[in-house]
Amino acid sequence: MPDVDPAWLPPGVFRALGTRRTLIRGSGRLVETVHGEAAEACARFGGRVVRDSGPGDTTDDLVLELTGSDGSDGSEAFTYEREGGLTTVTASGQAGLLHGFFHVVRLGEDAFRGERARETHCPAVALRMVDHWDNVAVHPVMGQVERGYAGGSLFWADGRARGETERVPAYGRLLAACGINAVAVNNVNVHESEAHLLTDRIGEVAEIAGALRPYGIRTHLSVSFAAPVLLGGLSTADPLDASVRAWWAEATERVYESVEDFGGFVVKADSEGQPGPFAYGRSHADGANMLAAALAPHGGTVHWRAFVYDHRQDWRDRTTDRARAAHDHFTPLDGEFAANAVLQVKHGPLDFQVREPVSPLIGAMPGTRLAVEVQATQEYTGQQRHVCWLGPMWSEVLRFRPEGEGGACVGELARGGLVAVSNVGDDPFWTGHPLAQANLYTFGRLAWQPDADPDSVLDEWIRLTFGPEETSDPVRLRGGLHAVLDGSWRTYEKYTAPLGVGFMVQPGHHYGPSVDGYEYSPWGTYHFADRDGIGVDRSAATGTGYAAQYVKPWAEVYESPATCPDELLLFFHHVSYDHVLHSGKTVIQHIYDTHFEGVTEVEQAREVWASLADLVGPARHARVAERYEEQLRSAREWRDQVNSYFFRKSGVPDAHGRRIY
Ligand code: GCV
């Protein structure tokens, strides 16, 4: 494997398996991957792998068995049991065997202890994808990776596919080990060089697909809706035009000639300047269905993003509410999307803020397959300079029930998949901030099982990444890592935009505080603070009506400040600074208190990390320590700017007389 951080697969995690005797039954590409993995572990630790070549092949320890005739049924399910001292994993599909293998790896010694009745493991969500916002050519403003905080692209450098033989397979291996099975390899903002990946540069996509395939990862591509014009020389990209449809059908067929198991297209249309069907007076269902028709004969899927809103809004216009946009645009189209068209919805109505309500679109389109998109890359949550483990936030989203108790939860409604915007680049630690690896791992495990306990997932990540072979005192290290990670999302929330109001970041790059940075901008992201109060009135009675996009009970819960949860109060309501929260504090005192607390928590976390210096490799320790310095500097800046801003607006002093500027 290349000279990059092994992340959650350091050699030590294979010790339990590598010291044992494993029998592998079955054949096929992914079975070979399992065999290769097991053989490498055994070569390192002294165990043995045998294949089902002869009747005398037996084992006392572990059987990995493909039960389907050729394992090509696509199933990712596997069974796991331990009886009479023998651990057995069976799967009818090769992918199931691969996931079963990594299940054993994750269990470590526990996989070989005691007895365990047969369990069936099956992913709750069939498609578990990471979307890379990677540009092929360096973009003058966005750089190589849009919203990327981990160096350059893993896939692209110098305007073409890296052709690196080691790092991409290593990435596929890490993804498979946490349950991810699909990758989109380029930015949804499709610039010219990326557009060509669909046609004359498909060979480069095929190279990447070839490197990911041995780990059961299918490759997807973001395409430009205007491709027939840009690449095909047609005069229109109208989705109902016969020549346009024929162009897509042919282009798609050629894609499958190069990438036989190609997953499909990801499309950002009519959004932030990207072309789309509106230009031709067509609906987004027309656009998505055209691509779905091209993909259908090959078993592909189009992921059509619902992130459609007016990004040229006049800030004086109080009638337009960006939060309403996806629901307004898409619910009238429910039932019109083809079976292989998935509507990909951001988990919140705005844009991956540290706190947003769950998008009301999720649950409002029963006749449409929805995928839910979260953001592992920390665009608004500290840009991988701050520790911000997002597991608790994602878990809250996935467990949210749009129709209240008794209704389905988001994890169940995401029939079209769970998607994370990738936080990975060509950084040796993969994610820039080494602790941000936990976000990618957690996403994969929650995508496999959305109701999993995020704290247990984090614990698993810690145990794998920092096992006994990586540190002299795993128990102390584990305690320290929980101390710095468990509450880090809430800490981040405390020192940034309060009570769900969002944004307040510096325009453009979105790092660091600027309370009014987006207040008079065209992007539709306002907080409306004045001398008396703050927040956006999204009630049906007096505001934008956004709250009424929910059904009961949430439409009622969010409608009134009396019932709206504190953490979302300013998302839904404009209230005075002396409004008393359910917590018993006034809004202004809450702002002051949380901002002081947030900084104190960062100071404490930095100290905890410093105390772990003897337990973590020096390069990793130094990288995190250096980032803590920046996090603390930035958190203080947030605290002082936010507190001063609201003190100056409101004139209300801090009840505890702390320093406000
Ligand atoms: C890829 C936000 C980000 C953009 C991103 C966009 C999207 O607006 O700031 O960089 O573009 O979301 O999700 O398409």
The beta-strand count equals 20
Average the pLDDT over all residues and give the rounded result.
Answer: 96
Strand content: 5-15%
CATH topology of the largest domain: TIM Barrel
Give the number of helices: 20
Structural class: alpha/beta
Assembly status: single chain
Bound molecules: 4-O-methyl-alpha-D-glucopyranuronic acid
Fold and architecture overview:
The N and C termini lie far apart (52 Å). 53% of the residues are buried. An 8-stranded parallel beta barrel has the order 7-12-13-14-15-16-17-18. The chain has a 6-stranded mixed beta sheet with strand order 2-1-3-5-4-6. Strands 8-9 form a two-stranded antiparallel sheet. Helix 2 (29-45) links the parallel strand 1 and strand 2. It has 661 residues and is an alpha/beta fold. The mean pLDDT is 96. It has helices spanning 15-18, 29-45, 94-107, 167-178, 192-195, 202-212, 227-230, 242-258, 284-295, 325-330, 391-399, 410-413, 437-448, 454-465, 474-485, 488-495, 554-559, 569-572, 587-610, 618-650, and strands at 21-25, 48-51, 62-66, 78-83, 86-91, 116-121, 128-131, 134-139, 143-145, 156-157, 160-161, 182-184, 218-222, 264-267, 301-305, 341-346, 369-375, 417-421, 533-534, 575-576. It is globular. Bound molecules: 4-O-methyl-alpha-D-glucopyranuronic acid (GCV).
Q: Which terms would index this structure?
A:
single chain, 661 residues, Chitobiase, domain 2, TIM Barrel, Alpha-d-glucuronidase, C-terminal Domain, eight-stranded parallel barrel, six-stranded mixed beta sheet, 20 strands
Q: In terms of topology, how is this protein built?
A:
Elements lengths: L14 H4 L2 E5 L3 H17 L2 E4 L10 E5 L11 E6 L2 E6 L2 H14 L8 E6 L6 E4 L2 E6 L3 E3 L10 E2 L2 E2 L5 H12 L3 E3 L7 H4 L6 H11 L5 E5 L4 H4 L11 H17 L5 E4 L16 H12 L5 E5 L19 H6 L10 E6 L22 E7 L15 H9 L10 H4 L3 E5 L15 H12 L5 H12 L8 H12 L2 H8 L37 E2 L19 H6 L9 H4 L2 E2 L10 H24 L7 H33 L11
Parallel strand pairs: 1-2, 1-3, 3-5, 7-12, 7-18, 12-13, 13-14, 14-15, 15-16, 16-17, 17-18
Antiparallel strand pairs: 4-5, 4-6, 8-9, 10-11, 19-20
The chain binds 4-O-methyl-alpha-D-glucopyranuronic acid.
